[in-house]
Amino acid sequence: ESLRKNALTVCGKLLLQCNAKMGATLWRVPPVQGFPAKSMIVGIDVCHKVIKGRGYDFLGFCASFDPNYCRHTSYAVKVPKNQEITDCVATCMKKALDNFFKQAKFYPTNIFVYRDGVSDAQRAVVIEKEVTGVDNVLTNEEPYASAQIKMTYIVVNKRINTKFFDFAGINSKTRGNPPPGTVVDTGVASSRHWDFYLVPQAVTQGTATPGHFHVVFDNSGVDEGVLQAQTFRFCFQYFNWTGPIRVPAACQYAHKLAFIHSECDLNDLQEKNKLKLLPYQL
């Protein structure tokens, strides 16, 4: 009986994954009030996989193009070996904006970029190369400049040692871990920069590890509380898991995209079969 129940669970998850890979929206989370409508959400990550004789890694770039921020266009780009910071992000951004216009018939009013895989020491280089390159596209190149697109660029750091405890709930099921959705933006957060910690998941064993989000560029004027709450909601939109994940869905899609291309180069297959509009990396 237990094997039968397990088989039904597995079959159900496989059917969900098949539907998602064909472009279905399995669920959606309504945006926070005050979050800019007609926005494009971008996730970026680089996978460094050691393969003998190969002199390049892959960057994964995923950008939403629907009103619910659930469907993404994907671009996998070869980058020099062991190089985290790259100047190809601006090129990918132009392709994503063109696809957004093709699908929606207008350009987004705002772009929110979640950049994963960047250490504290590399943050200044990200601003110098990636952020400056994308901002130059949005302000100086047509037709994007005429659309007056605003941008918020957020660096996501998962590998941190910071932990938070809820002493009021020390005897509860969470065993002292803060409840999901907890945001810490004072005290341990920087007093000079805009950053915050977010605990998106409920943890019943061990201690919850928050994500550290650094807003390195912002000209959108979005409210801090709105951005924090919307970032939490984005963690629920990854279709390979029915609960929240540690990072926004676009960020995880980019990670999976870079990983699968590093395992087997699928660039030709992606272009020939128009897979870039589907989450085939799930």
Question: How do the helices and strands line up, and which of them pair or pack?
Answer:
Elements: H1 2-21, E1 39-47, E2 56-64, E3 72-80, H2 89-104, E4 110-116, H3 123-140, H4 144-147, E5 150-157, E6 182-184, E7 194-199, E8 211-218, H5 224-234, H6 249-263, H7 267-272
Radius of gyration, in angstroms, nearest whole number: 19 Å
Across the major sheet, the strand order is 3-2-1-4-5-8-7-6
- Based on secondary structure, the structural category is alpha+beta
Biggest sheet descriptor: 8 strands, mixed
The mean pLDDT is: 86
Which residues sit in consecutive blocks of at least 5 with pLDDT less than 50? Answer: none
Indicate the overall shape.
globular
The fraction of residues assigned to DSSP E strands is 15-25%
Provide the descriptors you would attach to this structure in a database record:
globular; 282 residues; 8 strands; eight-stranded mixed β-sheet; alpha+beta; single chain
Describe this structure as you would to a colleague:
This protein is of the alpha+beta class. Helices cover 32% and strands 21% of the residues. It has an 8-stranded mixed β-sheet. The longest helix is centred in the N-terminal third of the chain and has 20 residues, at 2-21. The radius of gyration is 19 Å and the shape is globular.
